[in-house]
Amino acid sequence: GPADGLLRPGDLLTSVDGIPLSGATHARAVAYVCQAASRGHVTLGVRHNRADIQPLGIPAVAPAHQHQPYDVTVTRNEGEGFGFVVISSTNKATSTIGQLIANSPAARCGLLHVGDTIVAINHLPVRNLPHPEVVALIKRSGTTVTLTVLPPD
């Protein structure tokens, strides 16, 4: 039935923990889900896609567009790392996620993947930045860092 708790293809996510998603970007919606998941539970508002009802003009939250950068905010506790390893390439002038540590904040978030290119750290572009400076930016972030990442081709 409509309240069976199952999500089906075409369902519209309308809210996350009571936060309406109308007009939210995909990245913002994913961030809300990620933040809720880090607390161990999430309440989703869902409108099932039924052929007999007309859409209300609320844009559906589209799947992430491949090759579009998006923001991922990772929050860690004092005394733990963010849980990702950055690899910088001198010949490509870019930094990428080289490893995710199991059960780390970055891994639990579920939005970072090995091979993602780091476009910016806390909204500061990092292309052509030397590796030690990239690492320093992350270390200076305190317990929360926002990475703008681009999935691999």
UniProtKB/TrEMBL annotation:
GO cellular component: cytoplasm
GO BP term (any one): signal transduction
Superkingdom of origin: Eukaryota
Cross-referenced Gene3D superfamilies: 2.30.42.10
Family matches, as InterPro entries: PDZ, PDZ_sf
PDZ domain: residues covered: 1-33, 71-153
Annotated protein name in UniProt: PDZ domain-containing protein
Origin species: Pieris brassicae (White butterfly)
